[in-house]
Each structure stands twice: as C-alpha cells, then as structure tokens.
C-alpha cells in the first residue's frame, strides 16, 4: 500500500506540473511518446488510484467533520467543533510526568510516544510514583523573566478571532481572572470589566497591559499535588469570586495542568466560564520552544484540543459542565488536524499565513448545597468533584455505594455524621492505590471505602487509617489483634474479609475503655466461636464457618453495651444447626442481591454510554447528509449565510481531470 501511495502522489504532482503549460495541444512527437508510455502502464494501476483518491477525500472530510450537535452551534460562538457529548476519556489520569517535561529536562528514556500513555493508562499510573532526580530542572519564573523582552506578537487576524470569541461570553461589569497574563489580553474593544486580575510570570508585561486592574507574580507550575497552585496570592482572591477565567496561550507551558484547572474551578462563581484559547503548535516555536512541554512538541493541534479537554475532566470531573472545543482559526489558516499534501505545498504562495487558533472551555457546575433525597447520588457526586487522590473511575464506583450506605442508616444524626466523613476518602484511597488491583479489585476498594465512611464511628483518624493498613497487609499486623485475626479468618473470601475489616476499623481510636475491652473480647472469642459452629454444623465449609462466626461475634461483641463475651457464648450455644444454616443463607442472599444490584447499575451505565454513542453517530450522519444536499450555509468565519458553490470536479477539487475519473 505504501508503494501505491507514493505512486499516486507522484502522479498527482506530475499532473500539477503539466497544468502550468495550459494544456497546450500535443505535438506528434509527444503523442508518440505518450502512446509508448501508455503501453507500460497497466489498467490495474489506473483503477487502483481512482478509488484511492476518492477514499483520501472522504477520510479528509470525515476527519474535519464537526463532532457537535447542530442545535449546540446555534447558541455558541462560531467555530464549534467538539460538542458536549463527543468527549471520551480513560478511567484514570493517563499522563506520566515525562509528558509535561521541557526539552532541557528530557533524557533518552523519556522520549517515548506520549500517546502510548493514553492507550495504557495503568502503566502511566505506575510510572507516576517514580521520581527522577533531574539536575536540569526548568525554573519557569526565571526563564520568563530572562526572556521578558520577547513578546508573543500574535497575527492581527488571530487576535481578532480570539477577541471575537471572548465577546460572545464576556460582558460589561464582569470580574475576570486571567492566568498566564502578559502585555495583551486580546479582550474585545470597549469591554468594561468590573475587575480584571492578572496572574503571570513577568510584572513589567502585566503593567504594560491597560486592561489589568491588579496583578500578581505567580508560578503556575508550582503546585500542591492534587490540590492546586501553591500561591497565597491566588488563594486570597477567594472562592466563587470570578465570572470568568481566561488563559490564552498558556496551556502549552503547564507542567501541572490538573492543579491549575482545580484552582480555576475554585476561583469561579457557579456558572462561571473558563476559556482556554491556544494556537497551532508551531505558532511561536522559535520564541518559546525551550518552555514548551513534551506533549505540546510531540502532539498535533487536533490532539491538543482533546488533551486540553482532559484537563477539565481530570481536575473536577462533573464539576465542569458544557465542555466544548472550537476551531476559531482565521479563514486562510491551516485547518485543525489537516495534513499538508504535495498539492498544498505546490499551490502555496503566501508564506505569512496566520496560525490556527483553537479554544477549549467549560462552565463551573452548581454544587448541591442540601441533601436531595430524590437524587442522593447527584448530591454525593457534587461533594466529590474536588476530592484529591480519587480517580474518576473511583468516584463512579464509590458514589452509588455511598448512597446505599447513607440510606441504610437509621437516624438523621448518623446520616449527618456520615456526610461529614467524605473528606476522609482521600486518606482511604491513598492506601488503597497501593493494593494489588487484581487481588483487591477496584469494586472491592470502593465497597470498603463506602462501608468505612458509612459507619458513624469512622472519623478517618490516623489510628483508624493505620489499623486499616494493618488489616490490608500494607503494614506489619499487630501481634495482639491483626495477626491472630488474619490467621483465624484465612479461609474467608476476600470480599467477605472486606466487610469484616470495614466493621472492625471504626472501633479503633476511641477513648472509651469499654471499646478496648470489646476489641479484646472479639479477638479472643474467634476460635471458641468457630469450634461451636463446627460442632453444630459438621458439613459446613470452613470459609462459611469463619464467615458466620466472625460476623455474629462482631455484631454482638464489638459494640460496647450490646453483649459481653459470656452472654454471647450462652446465646450461640442455644442456636441449633438449622438456625446457623438459616443465618448463612440469609447472609448469602444479601450478597446475591447486592451483586444483582451492581450488575443492573453497570448495565444502566453501559446503556447510557451506548445511547450517547448512537446519538453522536446519528448527528454525524445528519451533518453529512445536510452537507451533501444544502444550497446555503452559515459561514462562521464571516458570520453570514452564503450560497454553497457546487464542488469542483477533478483531483481533490483542483479542476484537474484524470482519464479514468475521480
């Protein structure tokens, strides 16, 4: 196929060169030469090239087709290319630290293809914890200060497009935070903001910007991992303060974009918009190449839009709404994702074409302030938007389990205490991410987290987290409790051990001496309890003996004031084999119901995703049909309804005909 492609390109190039002679009549000698050459050209070659050219044209058109609902475009700025439902993401943050290194920080081993991380997110996640000591660490503030005389100097056609896009969303009286601020903000002429705060790297550049009302020197690359930008000045600006955050031509220099977007989310008012314009990758490469991150150098402009969208997704998830991507390139700029063909290069005469210009943007969602019993999951989701440590995958798994745990509580006091424990989830998951994902699945992790947070006595204290780690085998188990418990319950299924662990851990950390007595009674009572059950039910499997015995003992003895060890022994001795078999059957039915509920939930999510995919396909088909049959169209670059010219015939619309058709 590669040989055929080269042949086709060569043929196209020769056709263009021939056109410079004005298709003059052939001389007899030329005709003779043509006939001689034709005998060496097989008809098979001709019939291969024609369909291939058509396929090239179709693939190019499909690649440039907007992935947005036409109804969306009616209420957005011109150039909408990627609509709300077109984005798809991996379940976890897919980039390792090398993805955001600068050229001076790179070593040979760091030069892997960055897109491999998108296809292998777990491998990237494993690499994330490997810290390399880099002697060439890039100092952002120092570099920008040393190069403060070098300005961006955008093409005026690009500036007009960015200003026009801003004019669709920014209004007089708004308060605006600009990240990466410099000498020009590209705001619409005549816009009167109430406040325009500039956050940048060079004071003199911001002072030269007439729009900025106050400015701060902040290194956007200095962050607290999973929290936000490490800056008192930025934090002092407040939460829910700004109507808009703009960040033009800055995303290409960020090494910790997730934290920058987290800080932006906090700064925005609910419903406020974050607008992130960026230019084609080569727009100012000669000036700022040293400060570019690896992802910016290695990826295409088309990929940059999706990577930019992922920064919204993995910073606050559903805390952002209305995520969209725009192509706002000037009319004569190179199109997003377009590949320059031989024909393009041969026809190109203007060496000063403006660069492409693009935007990704989203609005801050409204966080639920009160518990809505009719949409409990929605409330819990909103409380988890900005929780660190948890990946989007973890949040999706734990939210429905938290909702069920909340509904299972008896009193309003217990429910309020549980809601106050959500902040302990990052501490739980900081330990769980170290577990073997195959032996201790993500679903089991989510169940343990939900069970712990759902226990009114769980506070997430250091004592409780430490005991959780010992129970999971992440720390050496204590000789007086976790070592004997682990040995005596070795036959239990992993998911059953998770349930037991979730019940035991909240009992630690109490100042109540009776709670310590209850813990001692539990560990000392395990073996005698199992012996009684074995004697009454000799045919019961050992795993079931340990399951029934440990849960009965835990439910009665671990809670102070319910039963002491002696009272429990009398009660257990009075049970018959039928009673114990009934308890086991009832216990297993709970597990089966939970499994069915989880399967139903997973099916519902899969159906939702399929519906979105089907809708996206339908929209693309409708757009394709409309393009083929329309006589007029709205031109977003001119803002006018214009007549559609019939497509030119010939090779790729050049007017050049081939004898075998196109």
Q: Could you tell me the number of beta strands?
A: 12
Using only C-alpha atoms, the radius of gyration works out to: 32 Å
Label the overall shape: elongated
Number of separate helices:
27
For the biggest sheet, the summary is: 8 strands, mixed
Mean pLDDT: 81
Gap between N and C termini: 19 Å
Q: Show unreliable segments.
A: 1-49, 121-134, 345-349, 649-662
Fold and architecture overview:
- The chain has 27 helices and twelve strands.
- It is α/β, with parallel strands linked by helices.
- The strands form three sheets. An eight-stranded mixed β-sheet has the order 1-9-10-8-7-2-3-4, sandwiched between helices. It has a two-stranded antiparallel ribbon with strand order 5-6. Strands 11-12 form a two-stranded antiparallel sheet.
- The chain is elongated.
- The two termini are 19 Å apart.
- The N terminus and C terminus are likely disordered.
What's the SSE blueprint?
Elements: H1 2-19, H2 28-38, H3 43-63, H4 70-74, E1 80-82, H5 115-119, H6 121-128, H7 140-146, H8 156-169, E2 175-179, E3 195-200, H9 203-207, E4 214-217, E5 223-224, E6 228-229, H10 232-236, E7 242-246, H11 257-267, E8 268-279, H12 285-288, H13 294-298, H14 301-316, E9 320-327, H15 342-347, E10 357-364, H16 376-384, H17 392-408, H18 412-419, H19 425-432, H20 442-454, H21 462-472, H22 482-488, H23 494-504, H24 513-536, H25 542-557, H26 565-574, H27 577-629, E11 632-635, E12 640-643
Parallel strand pairs: 2-3, 2-7, 3-4, 7-8
Antiparallel strand pairs: 1-9, 5-6, 8-10, 9-10, 11-12
């Amino acid at each position: 196929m590669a040989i055929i492609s080269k042949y086709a390109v060569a043929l196209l190039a020769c056709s263009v060169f021939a056109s410079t002679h004005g298709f003059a009549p052939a001389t007899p000698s030329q005709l003779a030469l043509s006939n001689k050459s034709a005998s060496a050209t097989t008809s098979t070659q001709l019939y291969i090239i024609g369909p291939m050219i058509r396929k090239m044209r179709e693939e190019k058109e499909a690649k440039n087709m907007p992935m947005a609902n036409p109804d969306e475009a009616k209420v957005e700025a011109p150039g909408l290319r990627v609509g709300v439902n077109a984005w798809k993401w991996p379940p976890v943050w897919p980039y390792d630290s090398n993805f955001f290194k600068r050229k001076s920080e790179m070593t040979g081993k760091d030069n892997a293809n960055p897109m491999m991380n998108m296809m292998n997110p777990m491998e990237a996640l494993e690499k994330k914890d490997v810290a390399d000591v880099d002697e060439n660490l890039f100092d952002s503030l120092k570099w920008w200060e040393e190069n403060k005389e070098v300005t961006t100097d955008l093409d005026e056609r690009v500036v007009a497009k960015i200003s026009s896009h801003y004019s669709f969303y920014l209004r007089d009286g708004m308060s605006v935070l600009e990240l990466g601020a410099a000498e020009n903000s590209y705001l619409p002429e005549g816009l009167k903001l109430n406040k325009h705060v500039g956050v940048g790297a060079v004071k003199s550049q911001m002072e030269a910007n007439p729009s900025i009302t106050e400015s701060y020197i902040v290194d956007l690359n200095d962050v607290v991992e999973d929290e936000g930008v490490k800056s008192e000045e930025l934090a002092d600006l407040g939460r829910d303060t700004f109507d808009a955050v703009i960040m033009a031509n800055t995303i290409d220099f960020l090494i910790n974009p997730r934290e920058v977007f987290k800080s932006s989310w906090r700064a925005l008012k609910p419903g406020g918009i974050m607008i992130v314009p960026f230019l084609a990758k080569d727009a100012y490469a000669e000036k700022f190449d040293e400060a570019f991150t690896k992802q910016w150098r290695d990826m295409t402009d088309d990929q940059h839009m999706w990577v930019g969208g992922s920064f919204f997704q993995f910073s606050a998830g559903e805390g952002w709404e209305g995520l969209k991507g725009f192509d706002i390139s000037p009319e004569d700029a190179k199109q997003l994702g377009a590949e320059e063909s031989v024909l393009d290069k041969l026809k190109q005469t203007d060496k000063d074409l403006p660069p492409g210009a693009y935007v990704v943007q989203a609005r801050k969602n409204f966080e639920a302030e009160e518990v809505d019993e009719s949409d409990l999951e929605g409330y819990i989701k909103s409380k988890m938007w900005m929780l660190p440590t948890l990946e989007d995958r973890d949040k999706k798994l734990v939210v429905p389990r938290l909702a069920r745990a909340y509904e299972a509580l008896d009193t309003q006091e217990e429910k309020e205490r549980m809601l106050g424990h959500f902040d302990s989830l990052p501490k739980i998951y900081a330990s769980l991410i170290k577990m073997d994902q195959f032996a201790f699945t993500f679903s089991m992790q989510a169940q343990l987290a939900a069970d712990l947070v759902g226990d009114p006595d769980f506070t997430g204290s250091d004592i409780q987290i430490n005991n959780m780690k010992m129970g999971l085998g992440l720390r050496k188990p204590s000789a007086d409790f976790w070592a004997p418990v682990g040995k005596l319950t070795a036959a239990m299924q992993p998911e059953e051990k998770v349930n037991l662990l979730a019940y035991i851990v909240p009992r630690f950390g109490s100042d109540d001496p009776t709670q310590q007595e209850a813990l001692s009674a539990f560990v000392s009572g395990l073996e005698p309890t199992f012996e009684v059950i074995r004697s009454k039910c000799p045919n019961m499997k050992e795993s079931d003996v340990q399951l029934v015995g440990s849960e009965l003992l835990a439910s009665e003895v671990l809670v102070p004031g319910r039963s002491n060890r002696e009272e429990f022994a009398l009660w257990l001795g009075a049970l018959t084999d039928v009673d114990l078999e009934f308890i086991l059957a009832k216990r297993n039915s709970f597990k089966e119901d939970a499994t069915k509920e989880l399967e139903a939930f997973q099916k519902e999510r899969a159906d939702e995703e399929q519906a979105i995919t089907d809708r996206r396909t339908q929209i693309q088909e409708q757009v394709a049909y409309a393009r083929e049959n329309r006589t007029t169209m709205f031109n977003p670059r001119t803002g006018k309804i214009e007549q559609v010219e019939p497509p030119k015939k010939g090779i790729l619309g050049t007017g050049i005909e081939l004898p075998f058709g196109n």
